[in-house]
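User: Second chain of the day. Same drill as before.
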Amino acid sequence: MTVVAILGGGFTGAAVAYHLARSPAGSRARIVVVEPRAVLGAGLAYSTRDPAHRINVPADRMSLDTRDPDAFARWLDATGAMAGDAEAFSASGQAFPQRGLFGRFVADQLAPLIASGRVVHRRSSATRIDRRPDGRFALRLPEGELCADLLVLATTHPPPALPAPLRPLAGDPRLLADPGEARALDAVPPDARILVVGSGLTAADVVASLDRRGHRGPILMLSRNGLRSRGHASEPVQPFGDFVSAPARTALDLLHRTRRVIAEAETHGIGWHAVLDALRGDGATIWRALPEAERRQVVRRLRSFWDVHRFRVAPQVAAVLDRLEGEGRLRLAAASLQSARPEEGGLLVEFRPRGGGRVERQPFDLVVNTTGPAHRAVVDRPPIASLFEAGLVDLDGVGLGLSADTRHRALARDGTPVPGLFVAGPLARGTFGELMGLPQVTAHAELVADRLGRDLDHAFSEGALKQAV
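Assistant: Same format as last time:
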């Protein structure tokens, strides 16, 4: 039987396994998901148990199947999982439950497939991957070797890299280099002076978590552009704008067109949320139309603006940020880090305000790094590092993950597709563009599962032909 190994059992890996296992082709394969966590589907994002962490997409738009978009909302109703959570609903009536519940939902959907043996959860971590002479892939696990005919790389992004000015603080307990660590904020004193480096969704989560724990000290949220993640529209909106009939060919054209469409929307009494939703929905087409050099410009110059409008905080989290800003306990600064050094009375950090102002110097009791994944470090971490050393994978040209073709196959260092090796989820953003929002990741996982199914059908047909001969 053909073995399909999926490396990573977060949402992407679980979704690929789910759709492949339910397909006719999947019934002729052994599907093994290598994931160290106890359940499939939660991953880093949805394994949190912090009540302050909420999904940032309304529940009725989150699902494991694009053909059944409100499956999560029905599951919430059927299980009563939101019982006792008085803050779960926004003023418009949309549900934004605690994020860990979505992980439970995905695990529940996978449970029957695991129980039946259609999906095997190998609770382990691969340390190395080698290509065998017969073309199969050998995954080295602590308990032994797993050989796969088809291999899907569905791992998460690497943790944040430490900005160079903060490196003198490495190893200091007053530096939280990776806020994704469980219970990382539990020991923070309530009056601590805190610097949060970054101002996206993770930064918002950190502030909300601190507030829930009773923190009352000052918080400075610092980023180059000083842009905070925006909130959702007060009422659900429909996408507005056409970005695909004659897609932009340059980053500058895309920016100008977006501004024009937002201005047009305003004349109809429509806010920017609807325009950004149209951009998101057409993201793959827009991305394909841009030459690689222009994609790099989008990532370099426009990404921070896109992220804060595209990845919106849940209304409950937005309310916390607004309240703390209004009370003067949270300050947002557009500035660049200059230096940092440990001192007995705190961590002394220097930063220069945007626009070339005088360097400011301020002591903090805790510095939290929320600068986002170190995308290019993906090839430095096992087991992908072994594939990179062998030339079987390469970084994409825009700095978002691994290079892949439009059939989801990994591209080797020489630019040729590697038979049997696939890239799924956010690591494939360089090729497919918008692959971070849950609806887009779901649709992408379905496409990867379909491609795997075709390869399985082809292998089965070839095998049957050989037997007949």
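The first strand starts at residue 2 and ends at 7.

User: Great, on to the next one.
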